[in-house]
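New to this. Look over this protein:
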Amino acid sequence: MYRLFLLILLQTLLFPLFAQDFYYKQNKKVLLTPVQDVTIVLQRSSGMQGLKYYKTPRDVIVGVSDEILLHTREIDAVAQEYGLTLIQELSTNLYLVRFSDQNRTLQQANRVHEDARVKFAHPNFYKQVQRR
C-alpha cells in the first residue's frame, strides 16, 4: 500500500514536468507556458471572456479561445470527424472553425494538424495590440 501511495505521489508531482502545451507552426512544435495572472485587455468587442493565456518563447502573451484556423481541401470531412463547427471561410481552403471544448483547444488543434488531409491547424491566437 505504501508503494502504491509513493507511485501515485511521484506520478502526480512529475507529470506536469513532462506535459507541455504546444502548437504547430510550420510543422514545428512551439512550446507555450501557461500564464495565470493576466491583466491585459484584448481589443475585440465580444467573446473574450474565459480565454486561457500563454506565453510564447518570444515572451508574447497570447489568448486561446475555442477557435482554430484550419487549412484543408476537405473541410466537410475534417469538420465532421473532429466535431468542428465552421464559423467562416477566410479564403480558398482556409477556415475559421470552433471546437466545442475550449479547455482542449491546443490538443484538438494539434490532433487536427496531424491529419494528412490538413495543411495546418492552430489556435486562433489573440494578443494585445500595441501602437507604435
Summary: The first strand starts at residue 21 and ends at 25. The beta strands are 21-25, 28-35, 52-55, 61-64, 67-72, 84-91, 94-99, 118-123, 126-127. The chain has one domain: 20-127.
